[in-house]
Specification:
The protein is an alpha/beta fold. It has 2 domains: 131 residues, Glycogen Phosphorylase B (Rossmann fold); 176 residues, Glycogen Phosphorylase B (Rossmann fold). Helices cover 43% and strands 16% of the residues. The chain starts with a strand and ends with a helix.
Length: 342
């Protein structure tokens, strides 16, 4: 029987199509395989026989005994198991079981897919599992967001010559958005705005951000739903994306790839993905050991970007675009996948 199915987590339901990384990977893999969620296969032997591989993304919090039993069954029947090592630990993780699940996955799977070469230093049980690791670039988002007719600058009374620092994405604590707000307030830059736009991740956290932004005429907090159809308009309104992630959990960043894909550069801590491209000289990266230093370093980088002016950071954004166009395209991703049997 021909093995022409790939089971993937999370599966290709409509809810997961809003995750552009997953949507891109569903589209790419479906060029050669029939794609379905692992829940569609379950423990059905006839379906398992048609399945070539299982690819697991962000499954650590959902890895219960039933799912583990099914994965063991798949492997016993010759199905290859691929785990994508996205984060050092799950974001906002408060359960030791999730960290233990990462160790179990690393030990159990056939291959560990890395989206940054430097992330191997955070691999669970590294000495045991390092030979399973393979670097495959994070697929870019070039032309994946449709052109949007909205003018975000005009809607928010931002002048065309004003420098806009942005954070765009789901508003969640691990992203340290309050640090951007504090840094921007302390800098008191002339002719500059801070735009924070994204869906509410945790309501209590967003309320905290609202309090921090209250009365600040140069800070715009837009916590409404942003569809994929509107994302291009927010990126176009931005001069630079500011991403002061927690290094405790963060390792890769889809927001970085998104920014580069739309000719924008970023300010970001030296997470694994940033370390990979630091020498390319088109990002503003920094290191820190605690929150106080995080604020200090991000202020330095925000000021450095501001002093380059809009045209200067725009030139870096173009370099970033050319980099992901060359190194993170579908052909490079397929080349990596074929190298591990897909």
């Amino acid at each position: 029987m021909e093995k022409n199915w790939i089971a993937i987590f999370p599966g290709p339901g409509m809810d997961n199509r809003s995750n552009l990384y997953m949507s891109n990977m569903y589209d790419l893999l479906s060029e050669q395989y029939e794609i379905m969620g692992i829940e569609q296969i379950s423990n059905d032997i006839s379906k398992i026989k048609r399945t070539k591989a299982v690819i697991l993304n962000w499954i650590e919090s959902s890895l219960d005994k039933r799912v583990k039993r099914n994965l063991i069954l798949y492997k016993m029947m010759g199905v290859k198991i691929y785990w994508v090592f996205h984060n050092r630990v799950p974001h906002d993780c408060d359960q030791n079981s999730e960290i233990k699940n990462m160790g179990w996955l690393a030990n159990f799977c056939n291959y560990i897919i890395l989206h940054s070469k430097c992330s191997k230093e955070y691999l669970p049980h590294m000495k045991r599992n390092i030979k399973k690791c393979v670097y495959i670039p994070h697929i870019n988002y070039i032309d994946k967001y449709p052109v949007c007719m909205r003018n975000i600058r005009r809607e928010n009374k931002i002048e065309e010559d004003e420098f806009v620092f942005s954070f765009i994405g789901v508003l969640r604590p691990y992203k340290n958005i309050e640090i951007i707000i504090q840094a921007f307030k302390e800098l008191s830059l002339r002719n500059a705005k801070l735009l924070i736009a994204g869906n509410e991740g945790k309501k209590n956290y967003v309320n905290k951000l609202r309090i921090l932004c209250d009365g600040e005429k140069n800070i715009i907090l837009d916590s409404g739903f942003i569809s994929n159809g509107e994302m291009e308009a927010y990126l176009r309104a931005s001069d630079i994306l500011t991403l002061p992630y927690s290094k405790v959990s963060s390792m890769n960043s889809g927001a970085m790839i998104m920014a580069f894909s739309y000719e924008r550069t970023v300010i970001v801590p030296e997470i694994a993905m940033a370390k990979d491209i630091k020498e390319e000289k088109f990002i503003f990266s920094y290191d820190y050991v605690d929150e106080t230093e995080n604020i200090k370093r991000i202020k330095e980088k925000m000021l450095e970007a501001y002093q380059m002016e809009r045209e200067g950071v725009k030139a870096l954004g173009k370099k970033a675009f050319e980099f992901v166009k060359e190194n993170n395209n579908a052909e490079k991703v397929w080349e990596g996948l074929k190298g591990i049997g897909l």
